[in-house]
Specification:
Length: 118
């Protein structure tokens, strides 16, 4: 199972998210719970017919994320929320296979994690 985790600002757009995901085959999208209603991300999930996994703040796998994120709100912790959401959604034993990348306009980030389940 491969999960694309996202971090995003309110101004993130569907074209920006499409650009990050490109044609990468994934099994699910993941986002921190307080951003799960973001219209661009919900539209991307619908467009790709993928489940959107909402990860509670307490369940973010920030201790396994690799990239520092010193400018994000403190409630998300010190590491990339995209990485932490992808790892949490991919399940126990998941590994990061793509560190956080940032959209050209800076409004969104994406990371990929691989879980042990098929």
């Amino acid at each position: 199972m491969i999960v694309a985790g996202f971090g995003l600002r309110a101004s993130a757009s569907l074209p920006g998210l499409r650009g990050l995901l490109a044609d990468i085959p994934v099994d699910a999208l993941a986002i921190v719970a307080d951003k799960a209603g973001h219209p661009a991300l919900r539209a991307l999930a619908a467009e790709r017919a993928l489940p959107l996994v909402s990860v509670a703040l307490a369940d973010l796998a920030g201790d396994r994320a690799a990239t520092p994120a010193p400018h994000q709100p403190g409630r998300y912790g010190p590491t990339s929320v995209a990485e932490a959401a992808a790892l949490a959604a991919a399940g126990p034993g998941s590994v990061l296979i793509q560190r956080r990348i940032t959209a050209p306009d800076g409004t969104a980030t994406m990371a990929l994690a691989k879980g042990q389940s098929a």
